[in-house]
Automatic annotation (TrEMBL):
It comes from Listeria rustica. The keyword Nucleus does not apply. Keywords: Signal. Coiled coil: none annotated. The lineage of its organism: Bacteria, Bacillati, Bacillota, Bacilli, Bacillales. This is Right-handed parallel beta-helix repeat-containing protein. InterPro entries: PbH1, Pectin_lyas_fold, Pectin_lyase_fold/virulence. Residues 1-26 form the signal peptide. The keyword NAD does not apply.
Length: 635
C-alpha cells in the first residue's frame, strides 16, 4: 500500500513539473475537493471547469476510477459529462452528506452517448451515496422551457419521424444506488434512460419533477427499478416509453417501490396543448397516465411486483391540475371570478352528484385523472402483490390496458397476469379496470385473479361495473377476486356497446365475491348489463357486444382407481399440456388431446369430492402458467 501511495504522489509531482495532463492508475480514487470548491455558490463556473479537469484524469483510463465527493455542497452551472468505468460517490452512506447542485437550466449529468458527431459507447457507471438536485434562480428559469433532466443517460434519440423498429443501444451496466435526486420542480424528468442494455436504480429518493416523469425508459433491455421512493411527479412515476424489455432475460423489473402523487403538473399543459385545443373544452382528451405506466408500443417482458402506489388529495378534492384548469376556464367566463384553492373541496349532493357552480362540471370528464398502473402497448406482463390507494374525486382507474400503434408497430395486451393486488379508492372512480383490446400469447390472454377491490365512493361510468371491455378481447379470465363497495356497482364485467364489433371470445369467470358495505346480502352479477349475451358464433355480430365460451363453473374430471380423466371445454388447441395439482402439489403432466380431453395415470385413491384439485396449464414442456380453471370430481 505504501508503495502505491508513493507512486501516485510521484506521478502527481511529474504532472506538476511537466504540466502534462493528469493520468490515473487502476482503481485510483480522485478526490473532488482537489478540483472543485464546496459550500460556495459563486464557485459554480470554476467547479464546472474543475469537473473537466477530472475527466482529463480518467478519459484515457480503461480501469475503474472512483470520483469521491466530500461532505458539503458542490455547485455547478453547466452539464457534467460522465465517462465509462467510473464510480461517482458521496462521502458517506448518508446521501445527504454530499450534494451536487446544478444552478443552470441545462441537462444535469449526461454522457457522450448521444453526441451527434462522435457518439461513444458508455459502460460500467455507478452513482451512489450522493444527493443531486436543481437550484435554479426563478428569474433565470422563467425564460426557459422545462426540457432538461437531472440525469440523462441516453443514446441518440429517435423521434416520432423514425421507425419504431430502429432502437438504439449506447450504454451498458449503468447502476444508481442510494441517491437523492430532486428536480425541485425544474427538471423535466428526474432520470431519463435510453438505449441502456443493462442497468438498475435502487434504494433512492426521486422527487419533484416538473412536467414529466420520475424515471423514464426508452429502448432499455434489462433494467431493475427496486426499493425507491418516488413522489411529487408531474406526469408518470415510472414510465416505459417504447421498445423496452424483450425476450429471454431482457426484462424490466419494477419491484418494491413506493410511488406517491404523480400527475401533479402535466395535465394542465396537456389540456391546453395545440392538438387538444382543436377541440372544445367539453371534447378535449383527458390525461390519465399511471403511477407505473407502459406507454408503448413494443414493451415486452415486464414484472411489476410489491409496489405501493398512493395518490390523491382526499376523497372530496380534485387533482391540482384540474383546479388550475377550472380557474382558467372560470375567468374566461367571468374575469372577476375568484380563484378556487388547490385544496378546493368538491361539493356533492346525497347522490354523489356535483353541486352546481362548486366547479365547472362540464370539464370533469376532460381533465387530469389518476391511474395506478397502465399497460398500454405491453405484452408478457406480471402485475402482482401491489398495494394501491387512490383518494380523489379524479380517480380514473386502478388498471388500464390499451393497444398502442405507433410508427407502424402495433402491440396488443396479451399474456397479462394481474394477481394478488390490493386496490383501494375513495371519492370517484371512472373505471376500476378498463380493457381496450386483448389478444393471446403463450395461451394466455388477460388474467385477473385473486385481487381485492375496495371502492369507497362512486363508480362513475355508464354501466357501473368493476371491469369494462371496449374493444375485442380474445381471452379474459376473472377468478377469485373480492370486492367491497358503498355506492352502486352492478356487476363484474361488461362489454360496452360502442356501435362497432365488440366482444370477449372466451370469458372464464368464477369464484368472485364481495358485498356492498351497507348491505352484506348484496353480491355482484358476473356480467352486466343486458347488452351482453352468450353467443356460440364463430364470428361476432358486427355491432352487438357478446361473450362467447363463458366459463362460470368448473371443468369436470372422473376418477378411477389409477386414472384421472378430464376435459377442457372449448380448448381449441390453446392448452397443449396440463398438470394435475392436488392440495397445492403438482402430481403429473399429461398431453391435451385435440378435442380437449386428457388422461393422467396416477394413483388417486386419496381424492374425495372435497379435495382441492386444480388443473395447471402448459404451452410446452418448459413454461408453466397458473391455473385458470378449477376442476371437480364427478363420481
Amino acid at each position: 500500500m505504501k508503495r502505491k501511495v508513493v507512486f501516485f504522489v510521484a506521478a502527481m509531482m511529474c504532472v506538476i513539473i511537466f504540466g502534462g495532463g493528469i493520468r490515473t492508475q487502476a482503481a485510483e480514487v480522485i478526490q473532488v475537493d482537489r478540483f472543485m470548491e464546496k459550500d460556495n455558490k459563486a464557485a459554480a463556473t470554476t467547479n464546472a471547469l474543475g469537473w473537466a479537469k477530472i475527466l482529463e484524469a480518467i478519459n484515457s483510463n480503461e480501469d475503474s476510477t472512483t470520483i469521491q465527493f466530500g461532505e458539503g455542497k458542490y455547485y455547478v452551472n453547466n452539464t457534467l459529462k460522465v465517462p465509462s468505468n467510473v464510480i461517482i460517490k458521496g462521502a458517506t452512506a448518508n446521501a445527504k452528506d454530499s450534494e451536487l447542485v446544478f444552478t443552470a437550466p441545462k441537462q444535469g449529468l449526461t454522457t457522450e452517448a448521444a453526441n451527434a458527431t462522435n457518439p461513444k459507447y458508455i459502460k460500467n457507471v455507478l452513482i451512489r451515496d450522493i444527493s443531486i438536485r436543481y437550484e435554479i434562480d426563478p428569474v433565470i428559469m422563467s425564460g426557459y422551457a422545462y426540457t432538461f433532466s437531472l440525469i440523462n443517460f441516453a443514446g441518440d434519440y429517435k423521434d416520432d419521424s423514425t421507425s419504431l423498429a430502429e432502437p438504439y443501444e449506447r450504454l451498458d451496466n449503468i447502476q444508481i444506488d442510494n441517491i437523492i435526486a430532486d428536480g425541485n420542480e425544474q427538471a423535466n424528468s428526474i432520470i431519463y434512460w435510453g438505449g441502456i442494455k443493462n442497468g438498475s436504480v435502487k434504494n433512492s429518493e426521486i422527487r419533484n419533477s416538473n412536467l414529466q416523469s420520475g424515471i423514464a425508459l426508452e429502448y432499455c433491455q434489462t433494467v431493475v427499478i427496486e426499493k425507491n421512493k418516488i413522489e411529487n411527479i408531474g406526469r408518470a412515476g415510472i414510465v416505459m416509453y417504447r421498445g423496452n424489455g424483450g425476450s429471454g432475460t431482457k426484462q424490466i423489473s419494477i419491484i418494491g417501490n413506493e410511488i406517491k402523487d404523480w400527475m401533479q403538473g402535466y395535465g394542465t399543459q396537456h389540456f391546453y396543448a395545440p392538438a387538444n385545443m382543436e377541440y372544445s373544452a367539453d371534447d378535449r382528451k383527458s390525461m390519465v397516465d399511471g403511477g407505473i405506466d407502459s406507454y408503448g408500443a413494443a414493451n415486452n417482458n415486464i414484472i411489476i411486483d410489491s409496489n405501493r402506489l398512493i395518490s390523491g388529495e382526499g376523497s372530496n378534492k380534485y387533482n391540482p391540475s384540474n383546479i388550475q384548469i377550472n380557474n382558467i376556464e372560470r375567468k374566461k367566463k367571468n374575469p372577476q371570478a375568484t380563484d378556487l384553492s388547490l385544496q378546493h373541496e368538491v361539493q356533492t349532493d346525497k347522490d354523489g352528484k356535483i353541486v352546481a357552480d362548486s366547479v365547472d362540471a362540464t370539464l370533469q370528464k376532460n381533465m387530469t385523472g389518476y391511474t395506478a398502473i397502465r399497460l398500454s402497448g405491453a405484452e408478457n406482463v406480471r402485475v402482482t402483490n401491489n398495494f394501491v390507494q387512490l383518494d380523489s374525486y379524479d380517480n380514473f382507474a386502478f388498471m388500464a390496458l390499451y393497444e398502442r400503434d405507433r410508427q407502424g408497430v402495433k402491440t396488443t395486451p396479451k399474456n397479462i397476469i394481474i394477481k394478488n393486488n390490493d386496490f383501494n379508492a375513495s371519492g370517484r372512480m371512472r373505471y376500476p379496470v378498463r380493457i381496450l383490446t386483448g389478444a393471446v400469447n403463450k395461451s394466455r390472454g388477460i388474467s385477473i385473479e385473486n385481487n381485492r377491490f375496495d371502492v369507497d365512493g362512486l363508480v362513475d361510468n355508464y354501466y357501473k361495473v368493476m371491469m369494462e371491455v371496449r374493444n375485442p378481447v380474445e381471452l379474459l379470465s376473472v377468478t377469485d377476486n373480492k370486492a367491497s363497495w358503498d355506492k352502486q356497482i352492478n356487476g363484474w364485467i361488461t362489454v360496452a356497446d360502442t356501435g362497432t364489433s365488440n366482444y370477449i371470445n372466451n370469458l372464464l369467470i368464477w369464484g368472485n365475491s364481495g358485498t356492498k358495505k351497507a348491505d352484506v346480502t348484496r353480491v355482484l352479477n358476473n356480467t352486466m348489463p343486458s347488452t351482453l349475451r352468450i353467443a356460440p358464433l364463430e364470428l361476432p355480430n358486427p355491432v352487438t357486444p357478446f361473450i362467447g365460451n363463458l366459463y362460470t363453473g368448473y371443468a369436470d374430471y372422473k376418477v378411477g382407481e389409477t386414472n384421472i380423466k378430464g376435459m377442457l371445454v372449448n380448448n381449441q388447441g390453446r392448452y397443449q399440456i396440463v398438470m394435475v395439482v392436488i392440495n397445492g402439489v403438482g402430481i403429473k403432466n399429461a398431453t391435451v388431446n385435440p378435442d380437449g380431453s386428457f388422461l393422467i395415470n396416477v394413483k388417486a385413491n386419496n381424492i374425495t369430492k372435497d379435495t382441492p384439485v386444480a388443473v395447471r396449464y402448459r404451452v410446452n414442456g418448459n413454461e408453466t402458467y397458473d391455473s385458470e380453471m378449477q376442476v371437480k370430481i364427478t363420481e
